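User: Before I run my own analysis I want an independent prediction to cross-check against. Here's the chain; please return only the structure tokens and, at the end, one sentence I can use as a sanity check.
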Amino acid sequence: MSDLICVGAVAGAFGVRGEVRLKSFCAIPEDIETYGPLSTEDGSQTYSVMLTSAIKNGFTARLGGVETKEDADALKGLRLFAPRDRLPSLPDDEYYHADLIGLEVYDAGGALLGRVKSVQNHGASDLLELHGPGMKTTVLLPFTLAVVPTVDLEQGRIIADPPEGLF
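Assistant: Structure tokens:
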């Protein structure tokens, strides 16, 4: 399990005084401010975060060290990470996406279906994007209790009962 969890991303500059548009990936979006300072994935840069207002699809924020519109523009697309120990612990049936990526997925009979490449959400519920040997394209597996009854982080595997015809 990764020590850093992606909690947000810079969507671009906001205004001319160095503010940024910030997308939060947190369950309670405004909590992103409390997990700071946030860092880049490699840890080379850290930023304090102060939310200034809510806007459509996120917030406006001040990041430490970002003073001009040009500084803010340069950060567009930057993903921000928080150390796992600053985040709340989760109930048994909830997972950080970072913990699921890379896990092997097996069917109930023990046959390997693939490995989790990403976790996506297009509005209805989470989907596990699987890839693996013999697959020409990736497969999107619904991440629901009915389809994925077991997630075993200690063993690094997921047991799934995929819908008929998915594989």
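Sanity check: The chain has a mean pLDDT of 90.
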